Amino acid sequence: MKIKQANSYAMHALMYMVRHITQGPVTIWTIAKAENIPYRQLVSIFKLLTNAGIVKPADSGKSGYVFARPPGKVSLLELFQLVEGEPVFDECFMKHCDCQATADSCEIYATWKKATASVERQLSEITIESVAWGHPEHYFPN
Prior knowledge:
It contains six helices and two strands, in the order αααββααα. The chain has a domain at 5-86 and 127-132: Arc Repressor Mutant, subunit A (Orthogonal Bundle), CATH 1.10.10.10. The chain starts with a helix and ends in a 10-residue tail after the last helix. The protein is 49% helix and 4% strand. A hairpin with a 7-residue loop joins strand 1 and strand 2 (65-67). By secondary structure, the chain is mainly α.
């Protein structure tokens, strides 16, 4: 399994918002500059986040974004699946062979399903709010 870099950008943008939540709305430009995330990519990510109801534009008269839902209600699994555009652990990692196996007929697939169900459960329990304070502030190198 490989997660797109856009997931890392989205997670870091939301963690930035958590860390600065008391300072009011934050602009995409501010996040892009602070985290060294490509601005255009962050604009696309914020469209996804807005459409999913995770963030929303600030009230009229203010620029920037705020959380549409409490960040303690946004799981890493939800975020990863949103950015990936599909379930993260939907199929066997050996999907490229033509074996037509199922979890009932293949020990490898059954083991994969069991392991990914555990990871999926853990990611569903971890929220953006909880990781924001346990992750060092940094920015992405050019």
